[in-house]
């Protein structure tokens, strides 16, 4: 693939301009991230009946999972 076809989408900012913009963004977002909010083993679980029929047992299995 020829990179010239993407040249119109790439900013030509210098490294100094990039760092200045980065620092401005960091300052603007200060206080939004709290490491205390991090949790180990975060994820999504799914319990479903393979036959597609709705049953109370499926709901109970999902709660217990």
Give the DSSP E fraction (strand runs of 2 or more residues). Answer: under 5%
SS class: mainly alpha
Number of distinct helices: 2
- Largest sheet, described in full? none
Helix content: 25-40%
Helix/strand order: HH
- Cα end-to-end separation: 47 Å
> How would you state the average pLDDT, rounded?
79
Radius of gyration: 24 Å
Low-confidence stretches: none
Show the helix and strand layout.
Blueprint: H1 15-28, H2 56-64
Structure description:
The chain is mainly alpha-helical and 65 residues long. It has one domain (14-64). It is 35% helix and 0% strand. The chain contains two helices and no strands. It has helices at residues 15-28, 56-64. The longest helix is centred in the N-terminal third of the chain and has 14 residues, at 15-28. The protein is elongated, with a radius of gyration of 24 Å. The relative contact order is 0.08. The model has no long low-confidence stretch (mean pLDDT 79).
Search tags:
65 residues
Summary?
With about 60 residues, this protein is mainly alpha-helical.
């Amino acid at each position: 693939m020829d990179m010239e076809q993407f040249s119109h989408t790439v900013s030509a900012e210098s490294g100094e301009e990039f760092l200045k913009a980065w620092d401005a963004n960091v300052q603007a977002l200060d206080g939004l991230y709290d490491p205390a909010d991090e949790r180990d083993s975060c994820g999504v679980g799914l319990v479903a009946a393979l036959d597609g029929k709705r049953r109370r047992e499926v709901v109970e299995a999902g709660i217990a999972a």
